[in-house]
Amino acid sequence: MIAPVAVPLFASAMMLVLGGDRRTLNATLNAASVVALVAIAIALLRGADTSPDGLLGVYRLGDWPAPFAIVLVVDRLTAMMLLLTSILASATLIFSLARWHRVGAHFHSLFQLLLMGINGAFLTGDLFNLFVFFEVLLAASYGLALHGSGTARVTAGMHYIIVNLVASLLFLIGVSLIYGVTGTLNMADLATRIPAIRAEDRALLEAGAAVLGIAFLTKAGMWPMCFWLPRTYAAAPPPVAALFAILTKVGVYIILRLWLLLFGDHAGASAHFGGELLLIGGMATIVFGAIGCLASQDMARLAAYSVLVSSGTVLSAIAMGPVDMTAGALYYLVSSTLGLAALFLLIELIERGREPGADLLAVTRELYGEEDELDDSKGTGIAIPASIAALGGAFICCTLVISGLPPLSGFVAKFALLTAALNSQPDSIPIAAWIFLVILILSGLATLIATTRAGIHALWASPDRAVPSVRLVEIVPIVALILLCAAQTMQAGPVMRYAQAAAGSLYTPHDYLRSVLGTENVLQHIRREPR
Q1: Between 227 and 428, residue with greater pLDDT
Q2: Chain segment 428-463, per-residue pLDDT in tens
Q3: What are phi and psi of 74, to 5 degrees?
Q4: CA–CA separation, 531 vs 201, rounded Å?
Q5: What is the CA radius of gyration of the chain?
Q6: Residues contacting 162, CB < 8 A, separation 6+
Q7: Residue 186 gets which letter from DSSP?
């Protein structure tokens, strides 16, 4: 259970000792570490899925008793996020070996430190430890966002650093307020103490939770705290942007974990605290992302705004509940993250054979009716180079996934969300469900229009464009991510069953509390009088 943290920590330390100029050896260590993380994540997922309560176990550092120990907890949701992270890391690392890992120093060590921070954030059961892993992943992401230099990248990277430093400050303030009221930062211990908080202290507790929520929602990219994301993701190197697709899901994961654990049905007067604002903010994020997709004049920004649509969809589904909605959200989270990562990698290959600013020029010509007319004298048959055909096919698949069209996993995910929303209440469908249904369908239509327009301009509108040189090491990870989306479709039953079980354990956290605190401690906290 500690291996997803220990392996990248050890690998990054070895790379720093070797030095950033020994890229071949560092790349070998990086690849070995990522392969090990994939194997470990698969083993953890299988172990959690076969466990009767869906919880593989608890690792207490130093073997200190709860709630004093720094604990790492592996359940179905944690194992799923660890596997998704390791898969994205594998694809982006393979893609970067073509050329991107050589354009700056310490790429491989920062890559491993980022994985360590992400994995630790998924595993930890302690708020302060969460802050530590949060800072590790942010520090590594700062270096990766600036990898390769360039004016646009440095400008966007500096904005990204400032925003996240402010978010870290809010994180500390929120944690301090919660600790001042409850006297603990262990997540399971917090879940047992919050129902017994005195009425006069509850406002301070909820204020701390609200400040903490702002920090996480900023990372998740919820509107209106998402202004930094499109520019940063569009300017980042393609393999870094593809890996950053999981960073917004770190914020979403923490919101999902803490909101249902600390403010679920068992939280007394604080039950479902902030749920309405989370729902409104999630829907607003979908709308903002969809409008951004339509307004984008280059493909990288289109992909970045699609990340916002993905985050907003998951946040809205979490806020709406119940278990079926959350299960659909988890299925959608995996599908959209894989599709967006593939799209970020693909855009770099498509743009390689185009002139700078080609997207802007194409939109401008279309706006003023200056499109080139077809020359019928050349006939209708046009030979399509193999690389263009491969890139075009991959782009169509990415479009289907992120817009939610059949036959790939994006359609299954949105169908599951819509079905759960319409079946949320047997007597009558809530107005929020209808609004979510409309927004989800329209956002898919907006994404389809935007990506289709971008694909036509990039791949078909310029027959005389230079054919991009595509290496096998670059196209293989993109195809692999798309095939995983196809596999998620073909195995939709088992994957949805797993998501359903993971969501169910979040809504009934008794096994989580018992594993972390022990049966005696849980009973003691339940019987405790209000503080």
Answers
A1: 227
A2: 778 989 999 999 999 999 999 999 999 888 887 665
A3: -120, 115
A4: 9
A5: 23
A6: none
A7: B
Amino acid at 116: M
Q: Give Cα separations from 13 to 1, 40, 108, 158, 374 (angstroms).
A: 20, 20, 11, 26, 59
Instruction: Give residue 162's identity as a one-letter amino acid code.
Output: I
Give, in order, the Cα–Cα distances in Å from 211 to each of 166, 175, 196, 215, 259.
11, 9, 21, 7, 13
462: left (phi over 0), alpha (psi -120 to 50) or beta: beta
What 8-state DSSP symbol labels residue 424? S
Q: What CA–CA distances, in Å, run from 316 to 73, 122, 275, 306, 467?
A: 26, 21, 9, 15, 42
Instruction: Provide the pLDDT for residue 37.
Output: 97
Cα separation, 216 vs 314, in Å, equals 14
Task: Supply the DSSP string of 434-483, one letter for each residue.
Answer: HHHHHHHHHHHHHHHHHHHHHHIIIIIS-TTSPPP---HHHHHHHHHHHH
Q: Which residues pair with 55 in a beta bridge?
A: 75
pLDDT in tens, 313-332: 999 999 987 899 999 999 99
Rounded Cα gap, residues 177 and 212, in angstroms:
9
Place of tokens 């949805």: 496
How far apart are the C-alpha atoms of 72 and 271, rounded to whole Å?
26
At 228-246, the pLDDT tens digits run: 999 999 999 999 999 999 9
Given a contact cutoff of 8 angstroms between Cβ atoms, the answer to whether 92 and 65 are in contact is no
Which tokens go with 219?
A: 């990372």
CB 216 within 8 A of CB 209: no
- DSSP designation for 372: P
* Number of neighbouring beta carbons within 10 Å of residue 188: 28
Predicted confidence at residue 357, as pLDDT, reads: 52
User: Quick count: other Cβ atoms within 10 Å of Cβ 376?
Assistant: 7
- State the DSSP string of 23-85: HHHHHHHHHHHHHHHHHHHHHHHHHHHHSTTSEEEEEEGGGPPTTTS-EEEEEHHHHHHHHHH
CA distance 302 to 37: 31
**Sign of the dihedral defined by the CA atoms of residues 122, 123, 126, 132, in that order:** negative
Q: Tell me if the pTM is above 0.85.
A: yes
Q: CA-CA distance, 481 to 458, in Å (whole number)?
A: 21
CA–CA gap between residue 346 and residue 327 (Å, rounded): 29
Contacts of range 225-229, beta carbons closer than 8 Å, 24 or more positions apart? 226/285, 226/288, 226/308, 226/311, 228/159, 228/160, 228/163, 229/304, 229/307, 229/308
The two structure tokens encoding residue 42: 């698969």
For residue 55, the tally of other CB atoms under 10 A from its CB is 22
